[in-house]
């Protein structure tokens, strides 16, 4: 855009100037001068426009935000761990997943609902869970209750009352002659009356969240990791004018905790299973960014902390700490094994760990590509690069293909 505008301006200016010097010379001079000035002016204007674009992307001032709604955090287009991992797949993947206005939100999928409910139960405790979620009753736990039209009609005939009308009408007639017979529709009605604005979740999701929370807190070391901190803390910061963001599942004075579920289909040892989950889902990329977030937050004064704030003593303890990042792994399924793993930037001998080295390198690659896409396309255009024809590289194929 800057180049085009500069070329038009330069050509017009050059033509006018050339006309003063001579008609024949004017057209030639206008073309040459227009191209040169267009390149120079276009580069400068383009740079200004890009800087303005980046400034518009920052919807939150750098700071630490407590109690920020999940929707508000995700609406901010700053560079994040999820964007970085998508960028490493392709720029178009990142745009479609994070910025496409027509993208479908996954807030209501069964997997997302289960994950959020489990996060609430594990990180905030059962009181907070029950205040936020209403667990739908499980009919299997009410085996003696009459349930469904045929069963209610049969009960009406057995009690000698009319079996016509709606289920609610039949239940009302049953209650007029029998005050004690158990009726499933009444269990459902009582549940609906007590929802009171809470999010309704299936019985199996509620049971999984409760059981996982109980087992996590049965482990003293893990229970300590989710005590004394604050859930869902959002951190916004800048590096060389580029906006970044992270949302810490549970922030303590000495560490940021991130809850991850994993599967272990091949019955690997627990330590191996969680390490493979890091590699498979690129959690090392997330960890590298979250460590940057914790360091940025540590340097911020209380003036940059927002929301229901912790005490000054808590803030001072956090600022004095060496930020650590810890994964809390919970196995999904019937056996919710748990494991705590710190993701360290440096090993005991002071050398950068290979995991952090790989994560940090991937972050830098993704960040450079993200800036390039923002410069080229902004948020409104799909991030589509030319993909010319090329031959396969043997290194791209998995080893088992040639075995």
Q: Can you characterise this structure?
A:
There is one protein chain. With 403 residues, the protein is of the alpha/beta class. The chain has three domains: 2-57; 63-128 and 203-376, Lambda Exonuclease, Chain A (Alpha-Beta Complex), CATH 3.90.320; 135-198, no CATH class. 52% of the residues lie in helices and 13% in strands. The strands form two sheets. The chain has a seven-stranded mixed sheet with strand order 7-1-4-5-6-8-9, with helices on both faces. Strand 8 and strand 9 form a beta hairpin. It is globular. It starts with a helix and ends in a 27-residue tail after the last helix. 27% of the residues are buried. Mean pLDDT is 87; it is low at 1-55.
Biggest sheet, spatial arrangement of strands: 7-1-4-5-6-8-9
Mean pLDDT: 87
Q: What's the total count of β strands?
A: 9
> For the record, what CATH class of the largest domain applies?
Alpha Beta
* Class computed from helices, strands and strand pairing: alpha/beta
Distance between the termini: 52 Å
Q: Which stretches are poorly predicted, pLDDT < 50 over at least 5 residues?
A: 1-55
Which CATH architecture of the largest domain is right?
A: Alpha-Beta Complex
In total, the number of domains comes to 3
Oligomer: single chain
Radius of gyration of CA atoms, rounded to a whole number: 30 Å
Shape: globular
Q: Return the string of H and E elements.
A: HHEHHHHHEHHHEHHEEEHHEHEEH
The proportion of residues in beta strands is 5-15%
Helix % is 40-55%
Largest sheet: 7 strands, mixed
Counting DSSP H or I runs of 4 or more residues, the number of helices is: 16
CATH topology of the largest domain: Lambda Exonuclease, Chain A
């Amino acid at each position: 855009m800057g180049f085009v505008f500069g070329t038009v301006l330069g050509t017009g200016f050059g033509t006018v100037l050339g006309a003063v010097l001579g008609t024949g010379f004017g057209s030639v001079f206008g073309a040459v001068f227009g191209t040169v000035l267009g390149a120079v002016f276009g580069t400068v204007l383009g740079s200004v426009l890009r800087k303005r674009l980046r400034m518009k992307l920052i919807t939150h001032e750098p700071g630490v935000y407590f109690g920020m709604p999940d929707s508000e955090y995700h609406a901010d287009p700053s560079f994040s761990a999820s964007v970085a991992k998508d960028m490493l797949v392709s720029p178009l993947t990142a745009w479609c997943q994070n910025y496409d206005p027509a993208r479908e939100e996954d807030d209501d999928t069964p997997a997302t609902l289960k994950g959020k409910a489990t996060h609430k139960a594990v990180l905030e405790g059962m009181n907070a869970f029950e205040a936020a979620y209403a667990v739908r009753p499980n009919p299997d736990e009410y085996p003696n209750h009459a349930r469904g039209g045929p069963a209610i009609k049969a009960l009406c005939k057995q009690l000698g009352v009319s079996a016509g009308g709606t289920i609610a009408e039949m239940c009302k007639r049953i209650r007029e002659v029998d005050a004690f017979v158990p009726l499933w529709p009444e269990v459902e009605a009582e549940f609906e009356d007590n929802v009171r604005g809470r999010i309704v979740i299936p019985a199996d999701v509620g049971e999984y969240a409760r059981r996982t929370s109980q087992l996590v807190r049965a482990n003293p070391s893990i229970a300590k990791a989710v005590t004394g901190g604050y859930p869902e803390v959002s951190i916004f910061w800048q590096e060389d004018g580029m906006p970044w963001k992270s949302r810490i599942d549970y922030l303590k004075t000495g560490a940021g905790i991130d809850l991850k579920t994993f599967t272990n289909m091949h019955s690997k040892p627990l330590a191996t299973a969680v390490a493979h989950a890091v590699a498979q889902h690129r959690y090392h990329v997330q960890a590298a960014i979250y460590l940057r977030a914790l360091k940025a937050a540590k340097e911020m004064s209380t003036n940059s902390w927002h929301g229901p704030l912790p005490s000054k003593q808590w803030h001072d303890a956090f600022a004095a700490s060496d930020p650590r990042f810890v994964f809390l792994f919970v196995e999904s399924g019937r056996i919710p094994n748990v494991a705590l793993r710190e993701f360290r930037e440096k090993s005991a001998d002071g050398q950068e760990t290979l995991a952090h080295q790989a994560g940090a390198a991937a972050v830098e690659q993704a960040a450079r590509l993200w800036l390039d896409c923002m410069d080229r396309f902004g948020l409104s255009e799909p991030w589509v690069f030319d993909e010319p024809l090329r031959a396969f590289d043997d290194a791209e194929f998995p080893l088992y293909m040639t075995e």
